[in-house]
Amino acid sequence: MSAPQADVPGAAPRTTATGGAVTAPKQVNTAFWLYIASAALSLVLLIIALASVGTVTAQVQQSTGGKISGAAVGASITVSVIFGILYIAAYVLFAVFMRRGANWARIVLLVVTILSLVGIVSGYGIGAVRVVLGVIATVLIFIKPASEYFRSGRAARP
């Protein structure tokens, strides 16, 4: 077991069933920051999408011959922004729980990363960078010593 990492924010040590302290290995902390960077890029994509609302509204109205009102397009954009913000918040929350050793959060991040491969070509190149960061982070949390860290988390639970 290693000593607690006091200089790493959020890396509070857990205790195992035997009372020993377990801290996140460096690669788990690296993966955490990669997930945070990926979430930040998602926020940038959301801002870019908001900046192009007028253009999108005009294109939708033109392509439908005016059958869809600007209000309907605006409502759908509002719903998309709300879901985007919720996605980013959940992604960061899962990363925090993953860093604390929650294996379920590691699995959720794996699933989200696999699903995000669909969006690799979107987002003006930023989407690809976001997905690549998520893939690298996901690989890091499934190889040693991270896998041992998550196993020790299961052993620490009563």
SSE topology sketch:
Layout: E1 14-15, E2 21-22, H1 26-51, H2 53-63, H3 70-99, H4 103-116, H5 126-140, H6 146-156
Antiparallel strand pairs: 1-2
Helix pairs in contact: 1-3, 1-5, 2-3, 3-4, 4-5
- Beta strand %: under 5%
Number of domains: 1
Main sheet properties: 2 strands, antiparallel
Order of strands in the sheet with most strands = 1-2
Compute the separation of the termini in Å: 19 Å
- Principal-axis shape equals elongated
The gyration radius over C-alpha positions equals 20 Å
* Structural class by helix and strand composition: mainly alpha
Low-confidence blocks of residues: 1-12
- Secondary-structure element order, as H and E? EEHHHHHH
The number of E-state strands comes to 2
* Helix proportion: 55-70%
The whole-number mean of residue pLDDT values reads 79
Count every helix, treating DSSP H or I runs of 4 or more residues as helices: 6
